[in-house]
């Protein structure tokens, strides 16, 4: 396993094993769908996002609180992915 593969696996694991089930279900599927294609600068930002507390992340993802500017575009992308994933299909 390469260093890059190990880093992606670690980020995926951290996405699926958060402190709360809600964040597991938001970040885990997003990580599975997007991490492999992310450029290194975006991966670094995602890793920084994972260092935040779930008690802060969840309100950002749900729109109950405003995400910090540095995370706002990534949070919006993840939140949209989660909403679309759970939207009923016709």
Shape: globular
Helix content: over 70%
| Nearest-integer average pLDDT | 94
Oligomer: single chain
CATH architecture: Orthogonal Bundle
Taking all Cα atoms into account, the compactness measure Rg is 13 Å
- SSE-based structural type: mainly alpha
Number of helices: 5
Look at the structure and give the CATH class. Mainly Alpha
* Beta content: under 5%
Question: What low-confidence regions span 5 or more consecutive residues with pLDDT below 50?
Answer: none
CATH level-4 homologous superfamily: Flavinator of succinate dehydrogenase
Number of domains: 1
Query: Tally of extended strands?
Result: 0
CATH overall fold name: DNA polymerase, domain 1
Largest sheet: none
Q: Strand-and-helix sequence, N→C?
A: HHHHH
Distance between the termini: 41 Å
Overview of this structure, please?
The protein is mostly helical and 90 residues long. The protein has a single domain, classed as DNA polymerase, domain 1, CATH 1.10.150. It has 5 helices and no strands. The chain has helices at 3-16, 21-34, 40-50, 54-62, 72-86. Helix 1 (3-16) packs antiparallel against helix 2 (21-34). The longest helix is centred in the C-terminal third of the chain and has 15 residues, at 72-86. The protein is globular and about 40 Å long.
